[in-house]
DNA sequence: CTGTTAGCGCGTTCAG
DNA sequence: CTGAACGCGCTAACAG
C-alpha cells in the first residue's frame, strides 16, 4: 500500500505538502503540486478512507437498513428497485453504500445506532422495518441523520420519503366503484406498516365518497404475503359471497388472492375483480394482467439518497417528500351493471 | 462518541487493558474484565472500525462490484437474488457488504483495485462485469481476494462460482429435440459474457448428439435485452421460416422473442416453441408460462460469500464452485410430429 | 496480570 | 508557500 509518506519521500517534500497538494488547497506552489500529483499517479496512490475518516469524522458512506434482502423476497423486488435508485444517486454524489446485515429474527444483539457508529457511516436510510422494531426509535432520535422510507417518525435529523398511499388507494377504489362495484373487500398488509394504515384510509375514504358504509369485517389481513392473502381470499369468499371486488394492498397479495379465486373454480375478473398495489413487474405479465397502483420505486430510492446527502451536507431542504402514484388499468377489473 | 479512553478513565485502568478485556484476551483478570465490560455497556461503547482496521488491515467488509444495479434492471432481478444470498451469508459470517457505485458508462476514473484499497475492503465479489472491462484484469491479478461470478479468470487469490451453463443449455436443447424439433434457432447474449459462450456450447453439443449440423446463422445476438431479442426474433422468423423452436440464453430475451412472435400474429407454443434460461419470477407467471433452465441465484450469492470468507480467513477450500441447473418444463414448448 | 510506548495513514494547527 | 508536531481511536510489542 502506498501512502502519502511514500509520495513525500519520492517527491522530496514533506507529508503535509503532499496532503495539501492532493486535497486541492490553494496555498501550494503550482510546480510542487504538479510534481506531487505526477508522483502519486506513478505510484498508484489512493487515499486510505479509514485514516481519513478517523480525523474528519466523515466517511462518504451511507448505511442501509433494509428488510427484504433475504431469501424469498425476490418476487417482491420493490426493495431492489429502490436500491437501484439509491445506488445510482449515491454514486453520482460520490457516496458508497453499505448494507447492514440486519439479521432477521436472529439475536439482534446490536442496535442500529451501534451499527452505524461502528461503521462510521455518515447517515442511514431505513426501509421495510416494522414500526414496532425495538431499535427503530433509538436511531431515529439519535444524532445520526436518517432518511425513512414509508416510516412516519420524527427525529432531530430525519427526512422522510413516501408515496401518496391514501390517494393511490382511493383512486384504485374509485376505479372499482366507477365500474359498478358496491361490495368491495380489502386484503391489507400487517398493521405494523404505515402504508397499510394509509391504504386502508384510502379504502374507507373512497367508500365514503360514494356513500357506502365501512364494514370492518370486509377487511382482512394478508400480511403482505402471497400465501396469507390466498387464505384470506378463501375466507373472504365463503364468508361474504356478496363481494364482487377486492382491493389488495400489494400486488403480491393480489397474486395470492387470484390463486384463491382460481382454486375456487372461479376466475378474475369474470367473478371477482382484483386491484393490487405497487405495480411489480409480474403484474404486467400475469394473466390476467393486474390492474394496480403504480409506485415510483426507483425514484423513491433516488430521492432518499438525495435527501440524505442534503441533510448530511447541511442544505436546508424540504425533509418530507411524497411521490405520486397512479392507477394502471389492466385486465383484472370488469364492469358490472 | 465514546472511546476506550473514556472507558479507561471511568474504570480506572489503562487504555490497553480495556482493549484487551474487550477483545477477549486471556491475560486479564476476570474481575477487571467484568468491571470494564460493565462500564462499556453503561457508556454504550461500540468500537470504531475505522481505527481498528487502520492497524489490523482488516475491516470485516466485503466489496461488491455488480453491474445491473441501476435503472431498468428490475425485471432481471437475478442480481437481486444473488445479492440476497450474499447478504444473508455475509451477515451470518459477521461481514458487512459495501456496494461500489460502479458508475455505468460515466467516466470510470477509478480502477476497481483503487476502489477496494481506498475502502479497505477485505475482499471483493464481482458479478455482471463484461470480460472486456478495462479494470477487471487489474484487480483479478492483484493481491486482493476476489470471488468471480460467471467470470473465468485466473489470479493469485481468486475464487469462482458459476452454474453448469453448458449442461443447462444442453438439457434445454435436448428437451426441444425430444419433442421433435429439428430446426432450432438460438438467441444468445453478448459475447463479452462467459455464460453466452457456454450456453452456445450446450446448444451445439446437443445438436451434435442428434447428428444435426450446426448452422451458425441460426444463432443471433440478443444482448441479454428484451428489445434486442425481440428484433432478433423478427429477423430470425423472416429469414429462416423453417425454425420451429428457439432457445434463448435468458428469460428476458425469451420474453422479447415471444413478443415478436405475437407481433407476427403467431403464438407460442403453437407456431414457435421457446425455451429460456434463468427462471426469473416472471417466467412462471407469464402466459404461456415459460419453459426454462433454473439457475440457483440465491445459492450463487450464498456460496460466493462463503467462498470469499474462506479465502479471507485462509481456509484451504475448493476455489471452483459449479452449481447445478435444471430444466423447468412449462407451457412454451409443444411437441411436433 | 497490567501499564507505557509506539505507530497505523491522514489532516490540521502553528511556526517559519 | 512549506514543514514539524500532534492526535483521531485503536492494537501490539515490551517491560514491569
From TrEMBL, chains A, B:
<dbReference type="InterPro" id="IPR010982">
    <property type="entry name" value="Lambda_DNA-bd_dom_sf"/>
</dbReference>
<dbReference type="InterPro" id="IPR028082">
    <property type="entry name" value="Peripla_BP_I"/>
</dbReference>
<protein>
    <submittedName>
        <fullName>LacI family transcriptional regulator</fullName>
    </submittedName>
</protein>
<keyword id="KW-0804">Transcription</keyword>
<dbReference type="Pfam" id="PF13377">
    <property type="entry name" value="Peripla_BP_3"/>
</dbReference>
<dbReference type="InterPro" id="IPR046335">
    <property type="entry name" value="LacI/GalR-like_sensor"/>
</dbReference>
<feature type="domain" description="HTH lacI-type">
    <location>
        <begin position="2"/>
        <end position="56"/>
    </location>
</feature>
<dbReference type="Pfam" id="PF00356">
    <property type="entry name" value="LacI"/>
</dbReference>
<keyword id="KW-0238">DNA-binding</keyword>
<keyword id="KW-0805">Transcription regulation</keyword>
<dbReference type="InterPro" id="IPR000843">
    <property type="entry name" value="HTH_LacI"/>
</dbReference>
